[in-house]
Specification:
Length: 233
Amino acid sequence: MTVLLEVIATTVADARVAAQAGADRLELVTAMGEGGLTPSIGLIEAMVAAVPIPVNVIVRPHSRSFVYDADDYATMWRDVRAVKAAGANGIVIGMLNEAGEIDREALARAIDAADGLAITFHRAFDETRDLRRALDVLLGFDAVTNVLTSGGKASVLDAEPTIGELIRQASGSHCTILAGAGLTLEAIAGFVSRTQVEAVHFGSGVRERGHGLAPVEAFRVAQVRAALDATRT
């Protein structure tokens, strides 16, 4: 089985390039420089219509923190329902409480609003006090199918042992560890081989000059795709 390749897309052009070059799935965000914020409904609809691969959409109302108030949550539930109506494959979301733990009640409400959409818990996970305990919480939610994580580090390449532990913890469950942040073409084969990760997430690593605000480049996506495929031959 090949390693799943998810690519961040911020425009329809990004989406088309990534899909044609071998991405398996897209994460649609705006404001990538702020870690990703909820995109417009028009952009969601356009991207879903433009590509044949699944589009997961981030629902994040601001970049201040991952601790939200009642107004933030009310906005998020509206956005989740709108994302579903726009035809997306899933949502990418995450929320913490003041204690640095996953806000279980809010996550349950997000799942209810998503009404069957796939749920990826994003890198709010990396800001929890205890990654393994946080993963246990997420494993208790059947709707959470992916956990995007850098293993608690700025770059996932500095967290290989932790990623390996999380993969083993999630083994046999409904949930996949989606490794991301800091991945590069040069490092990906060794990273996959050592961690046995089944899904990876690329943003800056497939863009011009490795710049997060630059366009996705087809040849970079294709090279990553080839490197991932080679790890499974």
